[in-house]
Amino acid sequence: MICHPRFWLRVIAMLCLVLEPATAWAETLVARQSAQIPQQVLRVISLDDLSSELLLSLGIAPVAVANLDGYRRYVRIGSERLADSVSLGSPQQPNLEAIARLKPDLVVGVSYLHLQLFKRLDALAPTLIFNVSLAPASWGGVALGESMLTRLGELTGRRAQAMQAIEKSRAAMARARSAIRDRGLAGRPMAALYPLSREGSFIVSNRQALIVSVLNRLGIMEPWRLDSAYSLHRRIGLRDLAAQADLTVLFIGGQEGTPMFATPIWKALPVARSGRVAFLPTPYWTFGGPLSVVHLADQIADAVLSMPGVPR
């Protein structure tokens, strides 16, 4: 998912529409799927960035892709394979006529974008809608990406490639865990925050967000854990940051140049004075597969190792 300043609040509003714990598929990997899925899937259409990433991680170039330009610009994983892929327009309103014309073996999408389109898609081609949202669930973002990749690997005869990608992600997390331990931060509070710089506040997401799920596998303490069955996110303020001793903050959303971080009140915070602050360069952190985990874990490790004032 592409995350610009101010984008996050629109995402929260949209994802609230899928927060329905009573649904029959609330704790399953697949939200909806066609009655008949081909045993050998070759021609696949992707309706969202996460599905595109997973297919490309398997070495599969989708015949058509929603948000094609956005994927090439922001996600980029395997994007060199998309040279011949047809653009389907936006993920929210993919070109159904093009889907029918291309006659794919499988259309892949995610519940928070495509659940309401399932019947129309199912009438065009075999369709698989994964249960993806920020609605609280028993799994985190890392486990979700691994499970989705494994399922797609089974459908396409590329389970070995799926396992290779998962092994890469786990190795990257092991490196990041080692960096955190070596800098004396294991067991200490560390948070990924999205700044709302004009309001002087920050958004903490739950464990379905990939960045939070990755951090929670790195041996840190989660300072603002969201345990409620209805908690998509929480907004915290500067006082909350000031109240956390030994805090390390990783900011997401690319806002390091905003005026808030040059104000005296920000500079006076213990976390700012300690230097345990970094801005992760990734614009893709809400959902992602194992290769996104590799990028995030490597960025976290680099950030931790470059921080001044961190105990060795």
From TrEMBL:
It comes from the Bacteria. Residues 43-308 form the Fe/B12 periplasmic-binding domain. It is found in: Cell envelope. It comes from Pollutimonas bauzanensis. One of its GO terms (cellular component) is outer membrane-bounded periplasmic space. The keyword Iron applies. This is Iron complex transport system substrate-binding protein. Keywords: Ion transport, Iron, Iron transport, Signal, Transport. GO terms for biological process: iron coordination entity transport. Residues 1-26 form the signal peptide. Belongs to the bacterial solute-binding protein 8 family. SUPFAM superfamilies: Helical backbone' metal receptor.
